[in-house]
Prior knowledge:
Layout: E1 5-10, E2 34-39, H1 43-57, E3 61-66, H2 68-76, E4 83-86, H3 89-98, E5 107-112, E6 114-118, E7 138-142, H4 147-158, E8 165-169, H5 172-180, E9 186-190, H6 191-194, E10 200-205, E11 211-217, H7 227-233, H8 237-245, E12 249-250
Parallel strand pairs: 1-10, 2-3, 2-4, 7-8, 7-9
Antiparallel strand pairs: 4-11, 5-11, 5-12, 6-9, 6-10
Helix pairs in contact: 1-8, 2-3
Amino acid sequence: xxxxxxxxxxxxxxxxxxxxxxxxxxxxxxxxxxxxxxxxxxxxxxxxxxxxxxxxxxxxxxxxxxxxxxxxxxxxxxxxxxxxxxxxxxxxxxxxxxxxxxxxxxxxxxxxxxxxxxxxxxxxxxxxxxxxxxxxxxxxxxxxxxxxxxxxxxxxxxxxxxxxxxxxxxxxxxxxxxxxxxxxxxxxxxxxxxxxxxxxxxxxxxxxxxxxxxxxxxxxxxxxxxxxxxxxxxxxxxxxxxxxxxxxxxx
Length: 251
């Protein structure tokens, strides 16, 4: 359930292009399991999606969650998957360029929006994004090659705003954890992460479009007979209702 949040607004006069806690051994999967590599921002919803698909299709799923660049690096290093999910178009395009065995075009299945969320109780008194430039303010932000970081960096550049003390992380899940535990004063995270926060001020970055979550299937020897079924299922009502309940926009 969403925590109590005060919603504020920051404007963005720019049209942007729409834009992940990894397992220790992503390739250690049972031979008959449907393996999915997914961005960390999908972890909460993904657990329920996994249970629902397994129950209806009688296929075991194993999902490896990580920041999108980490997922792509694991695959180029030889890790095995049947489906790759990414959190923005740029990441998927990069993956398809490096891994020609990925199907094209990618299939959109959800959307998500970036917000700025403060630590519980907002101890730094942040009321606008401009407050992030004040001396001593710790702001969590994903690395610029991660979808959430790509969006945040573009937004900050459009506002000509420099963070006083940026705290860079490799996934949005890590930023959200530091916000929730008050290790930082605020962080750029997704609405799907912000809804779990308690007593946090959430600043909406108005004008910033949602990013696109999409998937592509492996078309080489890694083809799994249930991969096509999953790709069709995730855009259906059952999966879309699950994603919507976790704050994602419908495909």
